[in-house]
Amino acid sequence: xxxxxxxxxxxxxxxxxxxxxxxxxxxxxxxxxxxxxxxxxxxxxxxxxxxxxxxxxxxxxxxxxxxxxxxxxxxxxxxxxxxxxxxxxxxxxxxxxxxxxxxxxxxxxxxxxxxxxxxxxxxxxxxxxxxxxxxxxxxxxxxxxxxxxxxxxxxxxxxxxxxxxxxxxxxxxxxxxxxxxxxxxxxxxxxxxxxxxxxxxx
Amino acid sequence: xxxxxxxxxxxxxxxxxxxxxxxxxxxxxxxxxxxxxxxxxxxxxxxxxxxxxxxxxxxxxxxxxxxxxxxxxxxxxxxxxxxxxxxxxxxxxxxxxxxxxxxxxxxxxxxxxxxxxxxxxxxxxxxxxxxxxxxxxxxxxxxxxxxxxxxxxxxxxxxxxxxxxxxxxxxxxxxxxxxxxxxxxxxxxxxxxxxxxxxxxxxxxxxxxxxxxxxxxxxxxxxxxxxxxxxxxxxxxxxxxxxxxxxxxxxxxxxxxxxxxxxxxxxxxxxxxxxxxxxxxxxxxxxxxxxxxxxxxxxxxxxxxxxxxxxxxxxxxxxxxxxxxxxxxxxxxxxxxxxxxxxxxxxxxxxxxxxxxxxxxxxxxxxxxxxxxxxxxxxxxxxxxxxxxxxxxxxxxxxxxxxxxxxxxxxxxxxxxxxxxxxxxxxxxxxxxxxxxxxxxxxxxxxxxxxxxxxxxxxxxxxxxxxxxxxxxxxxxxxxxxxxxxxxxxxxxxxxxxxxxxxxxxxxxxxxxxxxxxxxxxxxxxxxxxxxxxxxxxxxxxxxxxxxxxxxxxxxxxxxxxxxxxxxxxxxxxxx
Lengths: 202, 576
Fold this sequence. Notes:
Chain B: Its EC number is 2.7.9.1. The structure holds 2 protein chains of 2 kinds. By secondary structure, chain A is mainly alpha-helical. Helices cover about 70% and strands about 10% of the residues of chain A. Chain A folds into 2 domains: about 5-70, Orthogonal Bundle (Arc Repressor Mutant, subunit A), CATH 1.10.10.10; about 80-195. Chain B contains 22 helices and 26 strands. Chain B is globular, with a radius of gyration of 28 Å. The model of chain B has no long low-confidence stretch (mean pLDDT about 90).
């Protein structure tokens, strides 16, 4: 497991340039704890401060690369985790990416063009499918979530984004400037890649 | 009207019956009714009303008498078609679909081919002479029922046969699809009712301030089959060209096909001319229907139809999906036809669509002789030139550069926001780089192959993300000028008159806030109180326009007026 300080530095690899509040939202830590961790990390040269936001440095990345194998040794040796990760990459992750693409683009006469969200039925079907994939993801990632509490936190945050999208705030499907389904999904993906020591598949 | 038919829970269309209310029968049934009352042929149907839905929730069961009325409703369809529900000869199959007054996510959509079982499959095979067709109908029905009524979450679409679908359902939910068609029907109706109280449907209604207990109607309609014989087929028809918006019907026809075959893209349909040749009478009837629905719907229509043994049936008509170009053309054309007034035409075109049209392109001939450095998949269209950098930090330090990465991750989003274009070595149209670039409307080419980063870094390049190419140097571009395109010019004039804020290329009112100078970040910059004018790229996007309006600014400065005007009008409409 990562200790609270390591967790804070790690959170900057999931959300580059974040405020203490934003990072605390990712990890579920107290803001004060995150602030203390950031202060220590800045002093160590692992993190840079920029106008109230923080950014990881190459030295910080190197430090984490040394930390992960120890912190996640048990998890990486668990065949159930390996199998779950495999299922995630080949299954639900591909589905979410394809659905996000379907959300952003729509087929008109054989060509894919920007989805102007004029077809409520089309959009509703995609959000509906995203909901089902989200439910399935919770099952697929169960072995990881049992080993690492942050995975459940990510699943909850994806659920929150989904609820907002279902409630008509459609920017919460793939918007970049909000914690959309896609934004949080990718943070989670990055997190579990680091947990398991795998390379991003593409 | 229920008094005239003697039904308490159903509405069954009868000649001379007044149009039912949308609240009672739902939007889908209402539009079927509409088509029928226009004299167009739709497969016979009846509706279980929203009142029955309310009663279902009161008693936690199908209300007293509904089961009997469902039987009577089905008998009515049987009489019209000479078929029998669950019959061993000429069986009747139906679709069951939800229909609230307003369509909403989270509700069950449609179960097709209900009424099928082993015996019905045999009867269908005998009637059509095509056992494969019958088996396919049965397999698909089983999947629909398993997913929508029994709540199976496994993917059932790709399983080879009914037995495999049944096994997957049993494994997942431990329940079986009933063989009795009447039981199927009652369970499907109850499932549609329940779906109106799904978590998602509730969330949607809460957001839009709709009553929480708003229920749904259930439309039960006879299936027609386009894959019965050589005199059958299916197709789609657009009342106007969906690509460029010209006023000409446009469509596809698939002989011996079923509706979903056309939509799925598994097979290539024929142009509508094929239908004109084979069935000139049906073709003429179809075009007349399209004309009628276009006029009645006051918009371009996308019409699904099926020909069964030489007889035309209309299945659905709804506003057609269209390209950005077509959306603009259709909106202006409808004003010229006297169908829309200018204010309404503005609601038919989005800021995003106009931004799409105003994207620069490589100037004609400019790419000839230019050195092609890399090529891949165009994932987010557009053209941009700049110096290539290979880290998000460098992209932030040099806004307007081209960010080239092996692939992108959440770590890179910052750089992607700052960059004018994004290029990757790996990944396809659904990769992270593609999805984020589309969300940002930044040109993006993915999958250019190993070595691209090293080959490009430090060079000045032009990314043509529409064609998926990266050229050396800065190539000339040309953009549609909104003042020179007649349709865009007219829309702009209408939009200026309707806009709550002034949008123009110059003429600031002090004090001015420049979003570009406020630093590049993921969040919108905070507009200082008292600001009268804003400028900068962030205020050209809808969320920036919204922020400017909420901050009470008077002027937005931008080179391209129309997208900003449309975003402002849309925001104003939503909030007032």
